[in-house]
Specification:
GO cellular component, one term (chain A): plasma membrane
Largest sheet of chain B: 7 strands, mixed
Number of strands of chain A: 0
CATH superfamily of chain A: Formate dehydrogenase/DMSO reductase domain
Strand content of chain A: under 5%
Number of helices of chain B: 33
Low-confidence stretches of chain B: none
CATH architecture of the domain at 688-991 in chain B: 2-Layer Sandwich
CATH topology of the domain at 688-991 in chain B: Alpha-Beta Plaits
Oligomer: heterodimer
Membrane topology (chain A): Multi-pass membrane protein
Radius of gyration of chain B: 33 Å
Organism (chain A): Hymenobacter properus
Keywords (chain A): Cell membrane, Membrane, Transmembrane, Transmembrane helix
Number of helices of chain A: 17
Mean pLDDT of chain A: 84
Largest sheet of chain A: none
CATH architecture of chain A: Up-down Bundle
Number of domains of chain A: 1
Distance between the termini of chain A: 9 Å
Structural class of chain A: mainly alpha
Subcellular location (chain A): Cell membrane
CATH topology of chain A: Formate dehydrogenase/DMSO reductase fold
Largest interface: A-B, 53 and 61 residues
Chain lengths: 484, 1003
């Protein structure tokens, strides 16, 4: 068992007991949906409707419903794809990498961050399928046994690597997330009153008993999955970046892309985690679990990755100049000063300049400013992908083919639609799943003799009809010897 | 311990043991009645299940499409084998001898007839597209009285009665007719109704030219010309006989190591024409200055008055004089004085017999004065009957309004036009003519050169050949075929000779009656000179009316979507006309591209969007004729505006005027397939150099890119991560001579018809989604070059390089799939839908394509085309893409080429179906394919033979020889440094002038 220093600032404030943790977090699941949640869900469902309408137009009439043309064959679709995949990075990073580095503060945020990852990857996965001219044949990208003779997937194609990278990432993230949820589901099951809830949560909790052996296996599996996920954090965006880096398009054909994309992904992922956590924290009154310290730490990560991305932007220009390749040089001059200069400078402002404000302690600890900053970074990272994709394509080798891109209403609808999809999923998650990992948070509570992880008979009496528990609830880790 | 499942198991009886280990218990029928009417439950379920399944299957049956085999197979027709028939395309503008490719009795493509001594296998874009007009649903499908369907016999009877009782003049109005037999039929009609006159007019009139040359077009021969001066004649694009002239023109434009000479071409013109883009020296002049230019040239060449040799006019005069008999002056002006002086200059050069051959051309015979007189007569009530024979003067004559009012006053009006067009719809009777592919006819395009057309399909609609109608009304009931055949007895006395003539499509001989002398006699050069020197200079903005390469001034191709979507060779605009204005005027007037202007002249005004046209003479604007049809058909109606009403008509027809322009505040986007105009000094894309340099050392005209390696500078293909493909049998390649390519766009349409390429319509072109597999990139030169980086800075230089010069040089670069040996598209496809063939082709498997479009992004040449919509079934494309939509239109599709589904990528295949056919033919005959046997559609249609296609594996093929000869000289690959190793090789353009495309060396 780990030692908790009495001098160190607590990671969870408000003098919470183990029971308080259970109570605070399960309360959101057990309580009736509040009006604010209902309102938010309605908005999200409206945009989900927009999504379905846009999908219908795209699938029924064809990709011509979008604004693409013979020169710019990818634009918002792949921009959105990379943006969502990037957002999906923070979850695994927080849960896996920070777990391996024993960053205990991650416990309060990892659940929501992982959920965000999964939902973001779901949103991302929409685009590679929808952007296909014939999405009903999407399964052809898998190297399946088939009746087409010797036809097989092309293992040279980065798009195929993408298929593997994204599907692996999604699967591992989902398993990791779900494993973490099991003990908490068991807590909810144990407290559930209604038969439907009891049945559902007992199914979801896979019959978790909370035995020491189960906890031990749980810890082991978490570590293994963290180990498996860690390279994935790097691989997914590396491979996504290869969609561009392996091509001949000036502005895409760049060896710096893999690290630059990974940094950018973590950057945007943390921004999205911040956006979501700042809202959740207020809506579900989780200020004691997601503290200002968390926000400051995430701000720092954002600033560091933002700076890496900024260096990458500048390096690209340097290399374009240094290589003396005409097309490459022009691609970057055009990026900064051509018809899409506004997109480039939006990107630079949002991604490189604004995160530097985090150097100021006042900004780092300000909830309002952090929220604004996180939104700005999200916008900036969307523009980054737009700039890379569209400004490189729209003026490549032959000036005769140079063209402009402008999105159609369906392009916009699909983007807003995936936001609707994302928030629908996230809101359902936030209502029906425990948004904070109770089990892990309980391990980082700071105990004193007065405020120990003890059984409170008074509180317990209120739940007399509970299945008999000997001491702690089944879902709580055995921490009686915490004082040692 | 043992638990028994029941008492039976404990007892362990044999009955129990029988079924104890069976997986299923034996089933007992619940109801074992002998009553036949009762249905056991299981039977009921079986029957119901079958019934539901059967009903479901029946309701999802796929539609049955019946393919009926021949009961009696026609001798000539073998299913899937194409037949070729010689024929002739002439619709009153340009003449082309063609071969009609027919599959299962359907004409599907037109190809040039190599036997023709005039067009020599070349074919214009209009002729290429003409096969589509055969299946045009906008044609009138029956005879009609006052627009209502009527029986043929009834129409004939009424017309004959009325003609017999007609008092006053009977007029037959037609465009130029070069058919001897048709003229004879008209003469026969005229002998039956003696008041008949035949009036011909040309929508793009050459009256002045005819007047100055005794009623004929001189037999120009550009192939013998070393110095060509054109005063506004677009002879490569639209003037008189562009295919013939283009063929001749390139003879002296092609260069090679052993022939380092080129003709010199001066072009004085208002709007940037296709010919102007090919000129060595192009001088923009106002339409009103054309007379003065001709006069100055006349004075310098004939009069001996020395023009300042520093001016371009002086240069032209001096070079013409020096060239003497190999000089040639042509003029597109319709001013008799100008044409008189041009004739005088040519005479003084002594070029008769060299650049002006003896065989005069008949393809223009229209007489403006006669037509104007007829229009007056019609309005005066002096005309008793008028027959419009493929003539639409209400639309395309500048006096269209008067023709319209005149028709109302004529007691009997008959239209032989193929549709109820602007003129036909005003006539009482409509007896629609067959399409020329449904007709017999003869032609004499040049004196002594005959050609035939033969029907290749029975008339699709209830139409009748116009000649037959005229004969019938004249009381002669023979079929036109018999009439024609009889008429040809003198030329082809035997059946064998006739059969050979029909087979070849062309032969030598003459049959046309002598040309009618122009109504206005020719002027003397002195009179012409004094008239021109005294001409008043107009003030104000001048308008020049011109003709497009795709749509003729007559507008008769308006309902042909192929031609509407053919990018203008210069502006790259499709679907409609516009006001071409010079940049200077646009800046002064604060007009932007696409701003709609109101253009007023003759008290009439039209509204058209602005297109900023480099090379447009300052103080002038230009508008194309042939647009703004109102009754052409669904695709052609309301595309652009009719500019014929703006022409000057007070002194003959002059295709110019003084106009006032006013901005309306509206905008109307112009659908251009290319919106960036300059090359940005990208020599790796396309190369050109000067003749002087080429003469000096042919090895220095092309700049070969080198890349740095540890061993020093190397050719890009020396370094590669790839394993090279081995081609054991064939290796197909293409070479494109940029010196020969004039940019006419014939290949674009040839490719479109051959490969079933969809037409997408104006909005999709604006969205940059045209589907052409082959395009011609056109670059203007800029005043700014990379050498300004240090003085102006990189950013400003790049920005300035985007602007074309005021009077730029132009280069045309045909661009299609380069069939890269290291194709970037092939590596990125996740499903292997695009792969490399064992013969060097980059092949596209439509069935396998899932449409990620990664290949198109990764294509450096941007030649891949994506099916954004289902062009053959999405209602949005029903009108423009009728050739894939309707049963009638689909008859034109090439059955050898798949119509691509929505969501798949497509691109140039090097006409793989033709390669396959050629290989199979050779295999059947147990031999190797011969060079020249397999030709792509683009190479075949090219009037200038700029495209050479062949097997690079065969050392004796034309392409191998060409590449060997040009290796290290003019042969280069576009974008060599990215090492995609294309199978298409370009030959550097050589300009007989200073090149303005790239920064001067050591400047």
């Amino acid at each position: 068992m780990q030692h908790v220093s009495s001098l160190r600032e607590p990671l969870v404030t408000g003098g919470k007991t183990l029971h308080d943790v259970t109570q605070d977090i399960c309360y959101q699941v057990e309580a009736k949906p509040n009006l604010r949640w209902m309102a938010a869900l309605s908005v999200a469902l409206f945009f989900l409707g927009v999504f379905f309408y846009s999908v219908y137009r795209t699938v029924w009439y064809g990709i011509g419903e979008w604004g693409l043309n013979k020169t710019v064959n990818w634009a918002w679709d792949i921009t959105n794809f990379v943006w969502w995949v990037g957002i999906g990075h923070a979850g695994t990073l927080i849960s896996a990498v920070l777990l391996l580095f024993r960053q205990k503060w991650r416990s309060s945020i990892n659940r929501a961050a992982e959920a965000m990852t999964i939902f973001a990857v779901i949103c991302a996965a929409m685009f590679p399928v929808l952007h296909m001219g014939r999405p009903w044949l999407a399964f052809w990208v898998f190297p399946l046994q088939n009746t087409f003779g010797s036809l097989w997937a092309n293992f040279n194609s980065p798009l195929l690597w993408d298929v593997f990278a994204i599907s692996t990432y999604f699967t591992v993230s989902l398993v990791f997330w779900y494993i973490g949820l099991i003990p908490d589901f068991a807590s909810i099951r144990d407290r559930a009153k209604g038969p439907i809830a009891r049945f559902s949560y007992s199914m979801l909790s896979f019959g978790w008993k909370g035995s020491a052996k189960a906890w031990s296996r749980y810890e082991t599996v978490s570590l293994i999955l963290a180990g498996v996920s860690t390279p994935l954090v790097l691989s997914v965006h590396t491979i996504v970046s290869m969609d561009f880096a392996t091509s001949v398009v000036p502005g895409w054909h760049t060896t710096i892309f893999p690290p630059y994309f990974v940094a950018g992904a973590i950057f945007s992922g943390f921004a999205m985690v911040l956006t979501l956590m700042l809202i959740t924290r207020v809506v579900f009154r989780l200020e004691d679990y997601i503290t200002l310290e968390h926000i400051a730490l995430m701000n720092k990560i954002m600033m560091v990755t933002g700076s890496i991305v900024g260096v990458a932007y500048i390096t690209e220009f340097f290399i374009a100049w240094y290589s003396q390749v005409e097309f490459e040089g022009y691609a970057f001059i055009n990026r900064a000063t051509g018809p899409y200069w506004w997109a480039y400078w939006s990107m630079m402002t949002c991604n490189v300049i604004t995160p530097q404000l985090v150097w100021l302690r006042r900004v780092r600890y300000s909830i309002g400013l952090t929220f604004v900053l996180s939104i700005i970074v999200n916008i900036g990272m969307w523009f980054e992908r737009f700039v890379i994709i569209v400004t490189s394509l729209h003026r490549d080798y032959l000036p005769s083919s140079w063209a402009m891109f402008s999105p159609s209403i369906i392009d916009i609808g699909l983007y807003l639609g995936t936001l609707g999809l994302f928030f629908t999923l996230f809101l359902l998650f936030a209502k029906f799943f425990p948004v904070i990992n109770m089990a892990e948070v309980k391990t980082i509570l700071k105990y004193t003799g007065d405020n120990g992880p003890t059984y409170n008979p008074k509180a317990h009496a209120a739940h007399a009809h509970h299945p008999a528990t000997h001491g702690a609830p089944a879902s709580a880790p055995v921490t009686h010897n915490q004082h040692d | 311990m043992k638990y028994w499942k029941g008492i039976e198991e404990l007892d362990n009886t044999p009955e129990f043991m029988q079924s104890a280990f069976a997986e299923f218990m034996p089933v007992k029928e619940s109801h074992e009645s002998k009553d036949a009417t009762s249905a056991p439950r299981r039977d009921f379920l079986k029957l119901m299940g079958f019934g539901v399944a059967a009903a479901t299957l029946a309701s999802c049956e796929t539609p049955v499409r019946k393919a009926i085999p021949y009961l009696n197979k026609p001798e000539e027709i073998d299913p899937t084998i194409a037949n070729y028939y010689a024929s002739t395309y002439f619709t009153g503008a340009d003449y082309n001898s063609v071969l009609v490719k027919s599959r299962e009795g359907r004409p599907i493509k037109l190809e040039g007839n190599p036997e023709s001594p005039i067009t020599k296998g070349g074919l214009s874009a209009r002729a290429q597209a003409a096969v589509l007009s055969l299946y045009d649903g906008g044609r009138l499908q029956h005879f009609a009285i006052k627009g209502q369907k009527a029986e043929v016999s009834q129409v004939d009877q009424e017309i004959r009665t009325k003609l017999a009782s007609t008092t006053g003049r009977i007029a037959i109005v037609s465009p130029t007719i070069i058919s001897p037999s048709t003229k004879k039929a008209i003469a026969e009609f005229a002998s039956r109704y003696p008041n008949t006159t035949h009036v011909m007019y040309d929508a793009q009139s050459a009256s002045a030219l005819l007047q100055a040359n005794g009623g004929v077009v001189p037999g120009y021969d550009f192939s013998k010309a070393t110095v060509i001066v054109s005063l506004g004649a677009d002879f490569l694009g639209t003037w008189i006989s562009p295919v013939e002239y283009a063929k001749q023109y390139v003879v002296n434009r092609k260069v090679n190591t052993n022939k380092r000479t080129m003709s010199r071409h001066f072009q004085f013109e208002t709007n940037m024409s296709l010919t102007g883009t090919n000129a060595d020296v192009r001088v923009p002049v106002k339409p009103s200055e054309m007379g003065a230019t001709a006069l100055a040239l006349y004075n310098a060449v004939v009069g001996g008055a020395g023009a300042d040799p520093k001016t371009k006019l002086g240069m032209a005069a001096a070079e013409l004089k020096a060239a003497g008999a190999t000089g040639l002056v042509v003029s597109g002006s319709n001013d008799p004085a100008v044409q008189t002086l041009v004739t005088a200059i040519n005479q003084s050069l002594g070029n008769a017999g060299t650049t002006i051959g003896t065989a005069a051309s008949n393809v223009r015979q229209g007489d403006d004065a006669r037509m104007a007189a007829l229009v007056n007569d019609m309005n005066n009530g002096a005309v008793g009957a008028v027959i419009f024979y493929n003539a639409n003067p209400v639309y395309n004559h500048p006096l269209g309004d008067k023709v319209k009012s005149g028709i109302a006053k004529v007691p009997l009006t008959i239209s032989l036009n193929d549709r109820l067009d602007e003129t036909g719809s005003l006539c009482q009777y409509a007896a629609p003519d067959n399409h020329w592919l449904e007709s017999w006819n003869d032609f004499e395009p040049k004196a002594g050169y005959l050609s035939l057309s033969q029907p290749v399909i029975t008339p699709i609609f209830t139409t009748r050949q116009a000649q037959e109608s005229l004969l019938k009304w004249a009381g002669n009931n023979t079929s036109y075929y018999k009439y024609l055949r009889a008429n040809w007895r003198g030329i082809t006395p035997t059946d064998a000779a006739w059969d050979k003539a029909v087979h070849d499509g062309v032969l030598m001989g003459t049959a046309l009656p002598a040309a009618q002398a122009p109504a206005t006699p020719a002027m003397s050069p002195a009179a012409a000179a004094s008239q021109l020197s005294g001409a008043a200079k107009p003030s104000g903005v001048e308008l020049a009316l011109y003709e497009k390469v795709g749509i003729s001034a007559a507008g008769s191709e308006a309902n042909n979507p192929f031609l509407q979507e053919l990018p203008d060779p210069v502006s790259k605009a499709t679907w409609g006309n516009y006001v071409a204005v010079p940049r200077k005027m646009a800046i002064e007037q604060k007009w932007e591209q696409n701003d709609v202007l109101k253009i007023t002249a003759n008290g009439r005004s039209i509204e058209l969007p602005v297109l900023i046209q480099p090379g447009q003479a300052n103080g002038t604007v230009s508008i194309a004729l042939g647009y703004g049809r109102t009754l052409a058909g669904k695709a052609g109606d309301k595309v652009g505006e009719n500019a014929a009403v703006l022409a000057m008509t007070n002194n003959g027809i002059q295709y110019m005027n003084v106009v006032t322009l006013a901005k309306t505040g509206a905008t109307s986007p112009i659908a251009q397939t290319q919106t960036h105009q300059t090359l940005m000094d990208r020599r790796p894309v396309v190369q050109e150099n000067t003749l002087a340099k080429y003469k000096e050392n042919p090895k220095e005209v092309t700049e070969y890119e080198k890349i740095s390696t540890p061993d020093g500078l190397e050719a890009p293909n020396k370094v590669s991560l790839w394993q090279d493909y081995q081609y054991n049998n064939h290796h197909w390649g293409m070479a494109i001579d940029l010196n020969s390519c004039i940019g006419c766009g014939s290949c674009v349409i040839g490719c479109q018809t051959e490969n079933n390429v969809a037409v997408v319509g104006k909005q999709q072109v604006i969205n940059r989604r045209e589907m052409h597999w082959m395009r011609i990139d056109r670059y203007y030169s800029s005043d700014t070059h990379k050498d300004s980086f240090e003085t102006k800075g990189k950013l400003d230089t790049y920005a300035a390089m985007e602007d074309p010069s005021e009077n730029p040089q132009v280069i045309h670069q045909p661009m299609m799939c380069q069939q890269c040996n290291h194709a970037p598209c092939e590596t990125v496809c996740p499903v292997l839908a695009t792969t490399h063939s064992s013969e060097g082709l980059n092949q596209m498997t439509y069935n396998r394509c899932i449409g990620t479009r990664y290949c198109a992004n990764n294509c450096p040449y941007k030649v891949r085309r994506f099916n954004w919509f289902s062009y053959y079934s999405n209602e949005k494309f029903e009108i423009v893409n009728g050739h894939m939509f309707t049963d009638l239109g689909r008859m034109v599709l090439n059955p050898d080429v798949t119509v691509r589904a929505r969501g798949v990528m497509e691109k140039c295949s090097f006409c793989v179906q033709r390669i396959q056919l050629g290989k199979l033919e050779a295999k059947k005959q147990k031999r190797r394919p011969k060079d020249g046997e397999i030709v792509t559609a683009c190479a075949q249609s090219c009037p200038t033979e700029a495209i050479v296609f062949g097997d690079m594996k065969d050392p004796n093929s034309r392409i191998s020889q060409l590449l060997r000869r040009e290796d290290g000289e003019r042969a280069f690959h576009s974008l060599d440094s990215i090492n995609v190793q294309p199978n298409v090789t370009y030959l550097t353009k050589i300009r007989n002038a200073e090149s303005e495309f790239f920064a001067k060396e050591n400047a």
